[in-house]
C-alpha cells in the first residue's frame, strides 16, 4: 500500500523568489520528534542502511542558530535551516541512516523533527 507526502516551498526576497509544491509517492513514512537537552547528544536508530530506499529526508529544528548538528555515516551538517533532501541527494549527506545523531550545542533545549519517506522496493 502506498502513501503520499505533500510538500510546498515558498522562499524569496524583494529581488525574487521561488515557490513550488507537489507530492511524492512513497511506500511508508517514518517520523520522530525529540527534545535534545542543552549540551546533549541523542542517537536516533532508524536502521536504514540502504539510502537508495529513502525517497525523502527532512530534518527540522526549533532553532537554527548554528547550534544543532545532525550526523550519520560519518557526515555532519550544522542546521542553519531545515535540511530537505530528495532521492539521490540523500546519499550526498550520508550513505547510511542506520543511526542519526543530533547534537545540541545551545544553552537551551531544542526540538528536532525528522521525517523519512521510504521506497522499500528500490
Task: Fill in the keyword field for this structure.
122 residues, mainly beta, Jelly Rolls, 4-stranded antiparallel sheet, 1 helix, 10 strands
Task: Provide a descriptive summary of the structure in words.
By secondary structure, this protein is mainly β. About 5% of the residues lie in helices and about 65% in strands. The protein has a single domain (about 25-120), classed as Jelly Rolls. The model has no long low-confidence stretch (mean pLDDT about 90).
Quick description:
By secondary structure, the chain is mainly beta.
- Work out the helix count: 1
| CATH topology term | Jelly Rolls
Radius of gyration computed on alpha carbons: 15 Å
Highest-level CATH class? Mainly Beta
The assigned structural class equals mainly beta
Layout: helices, strands, pairs:
Elements: E1 3-13, E2 16-26, E3 28-36, E4 41-48, E5 54-61, E6 68-72, E7 75-78, E8 83-86, H1 89-93, E9 97-104, E10 110-118
Antiparallel strand pairs: 1-2, 3-10, 4-9, 5-8, 5-10, 6-7, 6-9
Amino acid at each position: 500500500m502506498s502513501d503520499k507526502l505533500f510538500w510546498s516551498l515558498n522562499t524569496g526576497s524583494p529581488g525574487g523568489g521561488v515557490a513550488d509544491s507537489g507530492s511524492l509517492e512513497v511506500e511508508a513514512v517514518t517520523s520522530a520528534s525529540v527534545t535534545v537537552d542543552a549540551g546533549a547528544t541523542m542517537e536516533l536508530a532508524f536502521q536504514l542502511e540502504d539510502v537508495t530506499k529513502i525517497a525523502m529526508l527532512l530534518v527540522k529544528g526549533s532553532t537554527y542558530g548554528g547550534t544543532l548538528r545532525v550526523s550519520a555515516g560519518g557526515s555532519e551538517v550544522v542546521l542553519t535551516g531545515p535540511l530537505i533532501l530528495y532521492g539521490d541527494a540523500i546519499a550526498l549527506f550520508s550513505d547510511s541512516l542506520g543511526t542519526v545523531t543530533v547534537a545540541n550545542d545551545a544553552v537551551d533545549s531544542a526540538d528536532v523533527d525528522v521525517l523519512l519517506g521510504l521506497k522499500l522496493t528500490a
